[in-house]
Each structure stands twice: as structure tokens, then as C-alpha cells.
Amino acid sequence: MQQINPETTNPPRLDSTELSTALSQFTGTEHWYRHSLNKRMLYTDGVRYFAKNGGELGAYWLLDKTALEICPLLHRKKQAFGVVSVSVNLDHSADIIVTDGNEQQLLRLDIQFTDLQNGEWRFYLIEEGDHRVMLLLGEY
Q: Where in this chain does the record put each DUF6876 domain (predicted)?
């Protein structure tokens, strides 16, 4: 019989409801995290939690998409505020829609496959000085 080392196995993945409940507990942040590829992008404790717990191996890909595609777009369009909505479908495809906060669509990205939990995940992107900060709605 093979022994399983609990220190090296991944904990069970949160389902959509568990992840949503956990994210609703974030009402502010104690730390700011700087994206490694776009030093002008910061994100909060709640976004970091989402990135660590979204999907089987995390959802850091969403932070990369945000840092490398969405933040530069908002900068070019001189948008100080943006809403990023990620809709994950049952077939594991997803749509990322970026709006100006007033339902004016600025960008749509089609994701052919993701292991992110099904449902709708929303984030704010705000301009703070020279930085773009990605945060959960409850952290705003």
C-alpha cells in the first residue's frame, strides 16, 4: 500500500460556493502584492487568496492576463476604474469581460479552457497614483 505524505499532497479544491463564501470574508487588505511582470499592478489579500484557490493549481493566469492585457488597455484608454468579470461555463470555457463600471464594454477575452470553479467572479481595477490595484468588490 502506498503511503501518502500530507505535506506534499494538494488539499481538496474548494467548490464554487466555498470559494465565494471565503472571498466574501475579505473586507479590506493588510498587504499589497506587486505583480512580477507588471510592477505597476498591485493586488490585495483577497485577490491573492482567489489566485491561490481558484482552479486545481490556482488562478495566477488571471493575474497575468490582468497585468499584461487589461491594465495596459485601461491605461491607454485613460480609464481610472474598471470591472473585470470572469464567467466560467460548465464546459470549462470562460469569458472575461472588462467594463468601465457603467456597463460600457472595453474588452472581451474568450478562454477556451480553465479549471477555475464555475460561476461569475468579479474584481475591481482602480488607479492609485502610478499603480493599478486589483481588488475584490468587498475590499473596495
A: 18-140
Q: Cα(125)–Cα(136) distance, rounded to whole angstroms?
A: 9
Burial-class residue 33 by CB neighbours within 10 Å (0-12, 13-18, 19+).
middle
CA proximity to 59, closest of 9, 117, 11, 136: 117
Please state the pTM of the whole predicted model. 0.90
**Per-residue pLDDT tens over the stretch 5-49:** 555 556 678 999 999 999 999 999 999 999 999 999 999 999 999
| C-alpha span between 136 and 45 (Å, rounded) | 9
Strand blocks (E) in the chain = 33-34, 41-43, 81-88, 94-99, 105-111, 119-128, 131-136
Question: DSSP assignment of 7-35, as one string?
Answer: TTSPPPPP-HHHHHHHHTT--S-S--EE-
Calculate the average pLDDT of the chain.
93
Level-2 CATH architecture, domain 16-139:
Roll (3.10)
